[in-house]
UniProtKB/TrEMBL annotation:
Pfam families: Pil1. Residues 1-39 are annotated as: Disordered. It comes from Aureobasidium melanogenum. InterPro entries: AH/BAR_dom_sf, PIL1/LSP1. Residues 1-19 have a biased composition (Polar residues). GO terms for cellular component: eisosome filament; plasma membrane. This is Meiotic expression up-regulated protein 14. GO terms for molecular function: lipid binding. One of its GO terms (biological process) is endocytosis. It comes from the Eukaryota.
Length: 136
C-alpha cells in the first residue's frame, strides 16, 4: 500500500523546508535552571522589577506569567506529538483500513504539534520584545 504521508516512514524534507528552515528553538528549551548567568545576576535581575515603579512591577509580573503560559503551550505541543506517534503505533496492529486512517490522523495531529512548537518560538520572540521594553 502506497502512503503519501505516514508516521511510520521517514520523510525527506521538501524544497520549501530546505529553503526556509525552522526558527531557532525557544529559550525555555535550554534545560538550564538559571540560564547562562550566575545566581547573583539572576536575583538582581528578578528583584529589579519588584522594587521599581508600579508599571515596571506590573510588566515584570506580565513577563513571568507569559513565561509560564509559554512553558504550558510547549508541553501541550510536545505531548500532542507523542500522542500522534502512539496513535499511529496502535493503529499499525489493526486492519489495513483502520491502520491507514490512524496513521494519517496521527500525521495530522503531529503536524498540529509542530505548528504549536513554532508558535511557542514566535511567542518567545514576543516575550523578548516585552523584556527589552521592561529593561528600558
Amino acid at each position: 500500500m502506497h502512503r503519501t504521508y505516514s508516521m511510520r516512514q521517514s520523510r525527506a524534507p521538501t524544497a520549501s523546508q530546505i529553503q526556509n528552515p525552522p526558527p531557532p528553538s525557544s529559550s525555555t528549551k535550554s534545560g538550564r535552571f538559571f540560564g547562562k548567568s550566575n545566581i547573583g545576576h539572576s536575583f538582581r535581575r528578578n528583584a529589579a522589577g519588584a522594587f521599581g515603579p508600579d508599571l515596571a512591577k506590573k510588566l515584570s509580573q506580565l513577563v513571568k506569567m507569559e513565561k509560564n503560559v509559554m512553558r504550558s503551550m510547549e508541553l501541550v505541543g510536545r505531548e500532542r506529538m507523542e500522542v500522534a506517534q502512539q496513535l499511529s503505533i496502535w493503529g499499525e496492529a489493526c486492519d489495513d483500513d483502520v491502520s491507514d486512517v490512524t496513521d494519517k490522523l496521527g500525521v495530522l495531529i503531529y503536524e498540529i504539534g509542530e505548528l504549536e512548537d513554532q508558535f511557542v518560538d514566535k511567542y518567545d520572540q514576543y516575550r523578548v520584545t516585552i523584556k527589552s521594553i521592561r529593561n528600558i
